[in-house]
Each structure stands twice: as C-alpha cells, then as structure tokens.
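Appendix C: a fully annotated inverse folding record. The material below is reproduced so that readers can follow the format used throughout the book. The structure is listed first as tokens, followed by the designed sequence.
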C-alpha cells in the first residue's frame, strides 16, 4: 500500500510554529525557494522540508525587512516631568 505524503496547509504550519498565518505567508513570499508540495483544491500544501525551512528562518530572525522594528523589546524612554511653572532663567532673581 502506498504511503500518503504528510503535508500541511499554511494554517497548520502557523499553529505548529506558534506564529501567525500572515507571518508564514510573508516568509513564503520572501523565500520563493520554499515551494508547495502539492495543491489540495485551491489550497497550497507544504511538506516537512518546507516546515523545517520555515522553522529555521523564524529561529534565525532572517525575516527580510521589518523584523527589528517588530521585535523591539526595549522599554520606551522616560519623558521628563514638565514643571507647572517655567524655571527662572539664569541670572534672574526669583521672587
């Protein structure tokens, strides 16, 4: 008996990689070397090699364009508190 190929849709791959479908779609768009294994109706399905390639790209952080802006983990800079009255200029006497 012939063994059926183990293929996955975009949604299943996103679930397995714990990421969004839009991110998987963007990676596949930027990496044309990752090709679908077949079609299931209108859906494209991918094999284990494609899943491994996506996992490697996600782990390496090589997403192509705006990954650093999307993964900014630094805390926002604290703004100095604005005083309710403007400070006196140097040399002026305070009353």
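Designed amino acids, in order:
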């Amino acid at each position: 008996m012939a063994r059926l190929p183990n293929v996955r849709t975009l949604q299943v791959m996103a679930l397995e990689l714990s990421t969004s479908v839009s991110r998987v779609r963007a990676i596949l768009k930027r990496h044309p070397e990752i090709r679908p294994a077949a079609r299931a109706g209108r859906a494209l399905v991918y094999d284990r090699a494609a899943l491994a390639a996506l996992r490697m790209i996600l782990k390496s952080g090589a997403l192509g364009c705006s990954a650093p802006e999307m993964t900014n983990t630094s805390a926002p800079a604290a703004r100095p508190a604005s005083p309710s009255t403007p400070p006196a200029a140097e040399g002026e006497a305070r009353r």
